Amino acid sequence: MAEETAVEAVGLRKSYGPVTVLDGIDLEVARGSVFALLGPNGAGKTTTVRILATLVRPDAGRVRVAGFDAVRQRREVRRRISLTGQYAALDKEQTGEENLVMMGRLCGLSRRRARGRAGELLERFDLTGAARRRTGTYSGGMRRRLDIAAGLVGDPEVVFLDEPTTGLDPRSRQTMWELTASLAGAGTTVFLTTQYLEEADRLADRIALLDAGRVVAEGTAAGLKRRVADRRLDLTLAGPAAYARAVRRLGATAVLRDPDRMVVGVPTNGSASHIRRLLDGVDPDGDTVERFTVYEATLDDVFLALTGRPADRARTAGQAAGEATARV
């Protein structure tokens, strides 16, 4: 593991009974970066994080976090990481300040230093005004911010955020994005799991696409999008027969197929000549395409091109069962 690497996993495998949740994944995360593991529910994201955070042992593979083996040197790893899950791990009867002071004491800080650290984090996460309110009275966004703040009391090298914005309203989600970016800006390595394409696109230096326990692609957002094209041309067809003919004519080049809306999408460079050629190929007589729209390529286009289905429809019953078991 190179000195500039914060997290490394090689050949990671995990099964629960007959269900394979992780099927030999490889990951490498640079220090001080934001790395996003992107995939639908049930893809294996939470299981991956639990293994990296030493909570679950892999069936096979090597894992190193912050320079230490996550299986044989778990105590050393735990001293250098924090994990924030999808649900806040806070005492609802204590105030926000009391929660952070308690965490500081658990991390070995003196009472005075724990109070000082709590004050720093409450200010950093815009919670000073609510510091002496019971956590049970906080909004979802406030609890999530406090939960992340609690994980930072010990000044970890690596922060694992497992779907940190799930269930938050758009404003709270935006705030969480800003806080996540600030962590990396301060030199902390952030390992983020998410099912939100925009979240990965906005925050991550590098992204791994996880589907059914396998990494199907990894790279920067821009690099992943270039795998399909800069843009996508969506064609709305006049009816079921026209839609079926278009799908047949486009074959494997169709990265989007939506029979409910009678829409097919194909990669394009966006030039007028290329769009004209695509239209002529699908509708040579000019009477079956009702309209067309050009979109910038998205990570969903990449996921669709690599797996044959959109990210929001990629969950399988078996993977869902495996992920549910992994959360126990």
From TrEMBL:
Q: Can the keyword Thylakoid be found in this entry's annotation?
A: no
One GO term under biological process is:
response to antibiotic
InterPro entries annotated for this entry?
Answer: AAA+_ATPase (IPR003593), ABC_transporter-like_ATP-bd (IPR003439), ABC_transporter-like_CS (IPR017871), ABC_transporter_ATP-binding (IPR050763), DrrA (IPR005894), P-loop_NTPase (IPR027417)
According to its UniProt record, where is this protein located? Answer: Cell membrane
Q: Where is the ABC transporter domain?
A: 7-237
- Supply the EC number(s): 7.6.2.2
Predominant location: membrane
Q: What cellular component terms from Gene Ontology apply here?
A: plasma membrane
Show the SMART domains listed in the entry: AAA (SM00382)
One Pfam match, by short name?
ABC_tran
At the top level, the lineage of the source is Bacteria
Gene Ontology molecular function: any one: ATP hydrolysis activity
- Membrane topology recorded in Swiss-Prot or TrEMBL: Peripheral membrane protein
Keywords for the protein's UniProt record, in alphabetical order: Antibiotic resistance, ATP-binding, Cell membrane, Membrane, Nucleotide-binding, Translocase, Transport
Entry keyword annotation includes Transport: yes
Q: Please give the family membership noted in the entry.
A: Belongs to the ABC transporter superfamily. Drug exporter-1 (DrugE1) (TC 3.A.1.105) family.
- Write the protein's name: ABC-type xenobiotic transporter
Q: Which species is this UniProt entry from?
A: Streptomyces carminius
